[in-house]
Amino acid sequence: MKNILVYFGLIITIVALYGFAYVVADQADGDGKKVFTDNKCQMCHTVKSVGIESKKSDASDLSSVGKDNTAEFLTKYLKKEAKLNDKDHKSSFKGTDEDLKVLVTWLLTLKGE
Ligand code: HEC
Asked: How far apart, in whole angstroms, are the C-alpha atoms of residue 50 and residue 59?
């Protein structure tokens, strides 16, 4: 009897871990774009490669922003702790550190077409 309980415990743990990993992987992939639009980044930026269009005429395209940037730099830059060409970013990220991480991870996947 005891063995069966241990066995079921193990199965449940494995299923739970698998589900958890699945959810985390899913978020890191799909939610960066959502964080981007939720934070109105598209007011000033287009991301042509994923179909985000800005209404601003001089919006800069971030389609290949992941090419020569690092997670460390982007994280600091978006919190205005680092400068690009001697300038702060226009807006300081207002969301949580979790969201910023998801956002930066997503930005780094943008490497142009
Ligand atoms: C008020 C306008 C504005 C908003 C809102 C804005 N940005 Fe920017 N962003 C700029 C400007 C201006 C630059 C500077 C240089 C440029 O044109 O690429 C810039 C630069 C960047 C860069 C660096 C691009 C490079 O060439 O390396 C990234 C990454 C970036 N923004 C991401 C974001 C994200 C993510 C958001 C939303 C959280 C956001 N921006 C919101 C105006 C804005």
From this structure: 15
> What CATH number is associated with residue 86?
1.10.760
Q: Is residue 6 part of a domain?
A: no
- Residue 37, token pair as written in the block: 């639009």
Q: Is 90 in the pocket of ligand 1 (CB under 6 A)?
A: yes
For the chain, the domain total comes to: 1
State residue 28's pLDDT score.
46
| Cα–ligand 1 centroid distance for 92 (angstroms) | 10
Query: Is the torsion defined by CA of 33, 36, 40, 45 positive or negative?
Result: negative
Nearest-CA residue for atom 41 of ligand 1? 41
> Which tens digit of pLDDT belongs to each residue from 11-36?
877 777 777 666 655 554 558 999 99
For residue 45 the two structure tokens come to 């930026």
Would you say the CB of residue 45 lies under 6 angstroms from ligand 1? yes
Is residue 10 included in any domain, yes or no?
A: no
